[in-house]
Amino acid sequence: MSEELNKQTEGLTLAEDTVLTNKEEFTAKHPLNSKWTLWYTKPQVNKSENWHDLLKPVITFSSVEEFWGIYNSIPPANQLPLKSDYHLFKEGIKPEWEDEKNSKGGRWQYAFSNRREVQSVINDLWLRGLLSVIGETIEDDEDEVNGIVLNIRKQAIRIGIWTKDCDDAKLRTVGERLRKVLRLADDQKIDFMSHDDSNKKGSEPQILL
Ligand code: MGP
């Protein structure tokens, strides 16, 4: 078998340096367009803990390699406890409605039921969402998207893309990209709600896509 393989690969050469020929390539880092901070919201244990107490920054990174290092060493989405959240936001933006970069914006959200059958797809959807955000393929205007959020709840898992403003045309582009990233079927809808409305009880989403 190895003889046959040797014969087949005899004439092959690698056009460029790779990790196979150049050990420096092992340490190369591929910078991302922006720096990103991962945040975690731990579940509330007693009622005296408010939203701000539960939310903590975990780590900031700026390269593809650091992203994978972090991704592979934190609990996968489907092992997070109920009532916890992951948030990945551009460095300097807090994942809160109150942050001045979020306050005029809102979020596109895809919610799917938290049943055992869907547990296996959570990690896949969340990873595809993360990659679209750090690769900035989710947006045309590189400043429209501030971050991505994962909420683990009993009734539903929610993935939300937080936008800087509520400009209809820009929102639609981001919404359409999100549908593609998550590979949603026609009957799987996402909705948009401004943070102003999220902060009011009983608000209905402004856009359904
Ligand atoms: P949630 O975690 O988005 O939804 O907000 P959940 O857990 O499904 O609960 P529900 O009440 O929407 O059904 C839960 C609560 O956390 C909100 O009602 C707010 O009190 C608080 N909260 C959430 N966010 C994203 C913020 C925020 O950005 N700022 C502040 N001050 N509170 C927030």
Task: Spell out the blueprint of helices and strands.
Layout: H1 2-9, E1 31-41, H2 51-54, E2 55-63, H3 64-71, E3 85-90, E4 106-113, H4 119-134, E5 145-152, E6 156-163, H5 168-181, E7 191-194, H6 195-198, E8 207-208
Antiparallel strand pairs: 1-2, 1-3, 3-5, 4-6, 4-7, 5-6, 7-8
The structure holds 7-methyl-guanosine-5'-triphosphate.
The site of 7-methyl-guanosine-5'-triphosphate has 6 residues, from loops.
Tell me what the structure shows.
The protein has one domain (30-208): RNA Cap, Translation Initiation Factor Eif4e (2-Layer Sandwich), CATH 3.30.760. The N and C termini lie far apart (53 Å). With 209 residues, it is of the alpha+beta class. The chain has six helices and eight strands. The protein binds 7-methyl-guanosine-5'-triphosphate.
State the CATH architecture: 2-Layer Sandwich
Distance between the termini: 53 Å
CATH class: Alpha Beta
Biggest β-sheet description: 8 strands, antiparallel
Number of strands: 8
Task: Report the average pLDDT across residues.
Answer: 91
Stretches where pLDDT falls below 50 for ≥5 residues?
Answer: none
- Biggest β-sheet: strands ordered side by side in the sheet: 2-1-3-5-6-4-7-8
Number of H- or I-type helical stretches: 6
Strand content: 25-35%
Rough outline: elongated
Name the CATH superfamily assignment. RNA Cap, Translation Initiation Factor Eif4e
Class based on secondary structure composition and strand pairing: alpha+beta
Keywords: Initiation factor, Protein biosynthesis, RNA-binding, Translation regulation
Protein name: Eukaryotic translation initiation factor 4E
InterPro entries: TIF_eIF4e-like, TIF_eIF_4E, TIF_eIF_4E_CS
GO molecular function, one term: translation initiation factor activity
